[in-house]
Specification:
Blueprint: H1 5-25, E1 37-43, H2 47-53, H3 55-61, E2 64-70, H4 75-84, E3 91-95, H5 99-102, E4 106-107, H6 116-122, H7 125-131, E5 132-133, E6 136-137, E7 140-141, E8 148-151, H8 153-158, H9 168-178, E9 180-181, E10 187-192, H10 203-213, H11 232-240, H12 259-264, E11 268-273, H13 278-284, E12 291-293, E13 306-307, E14 311-316, H14 322-332, H15 335-345, H16 352-358, H17 365-370, E15 374-375, H18 382-397, H19 403-420
Parallel strand pairs: 1-2, 1-3, 10-11, 13-15
Antiparallel strand pairs: 3-14, 4-14, 5-6, 7-14, 8-11, 8-12, 9-10
């Protein structure tokens, strides 16, 4: 019997509804169920690491992950240029100090995957402060690195010093015992690589930490500097005393090798570095026996303050694979892939539950513990901020300007950078 006109219309509507339902549940609009390629740009981690940690994901989804390692020295500008031309990656490494400068370039995570509250619960608190804004999550790390004290146990033994310093006051007391000078008073072996900017690795991070330990937030919620009136001058004076010729704690100057290189060569007893620096030190001196201790704190401190520097994974706002990209990041930050990443890179993990298991590690345990007490601050342009800090430290160390003048100049320049931001 032939269908009536009404029956034909009803059948057509049903068929159309079925087709729409299939498309919706298959996630056609977000590439789910379709094999796709995600391009990831990163620094410091090589291709073999990413091949290992993404193997299971690629097998289960059929998606391809193309990881491209970039030169850290040119990475930011190359990334900016690629995004500007529409040829950027889907996912890229995003520095923990970049959110103020680059948040317009990245797409926040779907709330079904990450919320500000879930990040605060599952990661050290510094991650939520660095990568969330207005309840949006903009990046998620695989590792959280912190600044620590590296020391040469042989040199401490020669000076009859039983343990590395726990406080800055203890460190100052050790300087005369560890410093070696010739008959003219010139330093032959330094006690600590600290005091200048241009030849001290992470000098700006070190000064930032000293400011924070002195009570400064460095910038407030309105992105105005606060360290002129709180913590800045005392931190600058403390740091540069080790490079001032007329100081009783003089032990370091600008003629010396870069601090971590000097440390690896046995030219200095104490230095400051990140877990990511360990490989460099071993490349300079493969058989050098050094140890790592927690970052010194003020003797009067009632709570630890440490300093974080690390990378997160972010999704480009230009990517047409936004959902798939964030799904991938969600998978990579699960416990097993995060553990595998930490193992392959010899770095501390990022998730609280994994950091808990790493605290007794003889190398990474210090960094795992410090992640919980780590701080950082939003920077208008990290590269320019670093130069401002380094130049000011060198000027104060050489007595060209006072500590107060150095701090005031730094604040003025940083405030100007914040004010220029679009």
């Amino acid at each position: 019997m032939p269908f009536t006109k009404r029956q034909i219309i009803i059948v057509g509507i049903v068929i159309a509804a079925i087709i729409i339902a299939v498309l919706l549940f298959s996630g056609g609009s977000q590439n789910k169920g379709h094999k796709t390629t995600l391009t990831v740009w990163g620094v410091y981690d090589d291709k073999s690491v990413w091949g290992t940690i993404t193997k299971q994901y690629q097998q289960e989804t059929g998606n391809t992950i193309t990881y491209i390692e970039k030169n850290p020295e040119t990475y930011e500008q190359e990334l900016i240029d690629a995004l500007a031309s529409g040829n950027g990656p889907d996912i890229f490494y995003f520095k923990n100090t970049w959110l103020f400068k680059h948040f317009k370039k990245i797409a926040p995570a779907p709330a079904a995957l990450f919320t500000a509250q879930s990040v605060d619960q599952n990661y050290p608190r510094v991650v939520a402060r660095d990568f969330t804004s207005n309840n949006n999550v903009y990046a998620i790390p695989l590792s959280v690195d912190t600044l620590a004290l590296f020391y040469n146990p042989a040199l401490l033994d020669q000076a009859a010093i039983a343990f590395p310093p726990k406080t800055w006051e203890e460190l100052i007391a050790m300087v005369p015992k560890l410093k070696k000078v010739d008959t003219t008073g010139a330093v032959q072996a330094a006690a600590v690589s600290m005091g200048t900017g241009s030849n001290v690795n992470h000098a700006s991070d070190l000064l930032s930490l000293l400011m924070m330990q002195s009570g400064s937030s460095i910038v407030n919620e309105s992105y105005q500097t606060t360290f002129v009136s709180m913590g800045g001058e005392s931190a600058m004076t403390f740091m540069t005393q080790f490079a001032r010729l007329n100081s009783p704690t003089y032990t370091w100057n600008q003629t010396m090798d870069p601090s971590l290189e000097a440390f690896a060569k046995g030219q200095v007893a104490l230095a400051f570095g990140y877990a990511s620096d360990i490989g460099y030190i071993r490349s300079v001196s493969p058989y050098f026996d050094f140890k790592i201790a927690p970052m010194p704190q003020p003797a009067s401190a009632t709570a630890r303050k440490d300093y974080a520097s690390y990378w997160g994974l972010a999704v480009s706002k230009q990517s047409n694979k936004y959902q798939t990209a964030w799904d991938f990041i969600s998978q990579m930050t699960q416990i097993e892939p995060n553990q595998l990443y930490a193992q392959k890179t010899n770095m501390p993990a990022a998730k609280r539950i994994i950091l808990q298991t790493m605290q007794n590690d003889p190398v990474l345990g210090v960094f795992a513990k410090q992640a919980y007490t780590a701080l950082s601050w939003p920077q208008p342009d990290p590269e320019l901020v670093n130069k401002i800090f380094v130049d000011a430290i060198d000027a104060a160390a050489n007595n060209r300007i006072t500590s107060q003048q150095a701090i005031s100049s730094m604040a003025t320049q940083i405030d100007q950078l914040f004010n220029k931001a679009p």
